[in-house]
Design goal:
mainly alpha, membrane, about 75% helix
Length: about 200
């Protein structure tokens, strides 16, 4: 079973033997023969591309926030101006991530469901790495939801009211949860690439 996402079930031949050489990266073991209709393949590639773009935006944003922006602001800014800056930065970043999360869920859910149907039709199960990736991804979505709609709202209210100790505590919680999501993201990537 290859780790590449299976093509849509409607475009697959499912009578493939369970043993044999692995498919090339651009194909899938559940149906190696090209479909006479290229449209299902194109849709699969578009969905996978959108999924990867959204994941890159999310992971890349967290990388920048954790490894560049936060250390820089801690080094050169006083707490109150830093809190005001982060309120503006997080407002924009979390809105972008919210869009990315919607894209990840929509495309990932569609691809995962198609993969599960194709795997079932061929008599195989999905690789362990896929299932772990899905589990880690859903956990990341829940963590982000708490960050965006609970932690960040608390931080915004504290900054608006100049309650700096409360804002600092909320910011520390947000940081810990972003670190958690960053780790979960890499675990998901490692799982889908390394576990079959």
């Amino acid at each position: 079973m290859t780790q590449n996402l299976p093509r849509p079930l409607s475009a697959l031949h499912t009578d493939l033997p369970s043993h044999g050489p692995q498919c090339p990266p651009s194909a899938c073991c559940i149906g190696q023969h090209p479909s006479p209709n290229p449209e299902p393949y194109l849709m699969y590639d578009i969905l996978k591309l959108l999924h990867l773009i959204a994941a890159i935006v999310w992971m890349g944003g967290m990388t920048f926030m954790l490894l560049a922006l936060r250390p820089a602001t801690l080094a050169v800014m006083e707490p109150q101006p830093r809190a005001r800056l982060m309120a503006q930065v997080w407002q924009r970043f979390f809105n972008v991530v919210l869009i990315a999360v919607v894209v990840v869920l929509a495309t990932g859910g569609h691809l995962y469901a198609g993969a599960a149907k194709a795997a079932h039709a061929s008599g195989n199960g999905l690789p362990l790495g896929w299932n772990l990736m899905a589990a880690f991804g859903l956990l990341m979505v829940l963590v982000f939801g708490h960050i965006r709609f609970a932690g960040f709202k608390k931080f915004q209210r504290a900054v608006a009211a100049s309650e700096w100790p409360v804002a600092a505590a909320a910011a520390a919680t947000i940081h810990k949860l972003v670190v958690l999501n960053f780790v979960l993201g890499w675990l998901a990537i490692g799982a889908v690439r390394l576990l079959r």
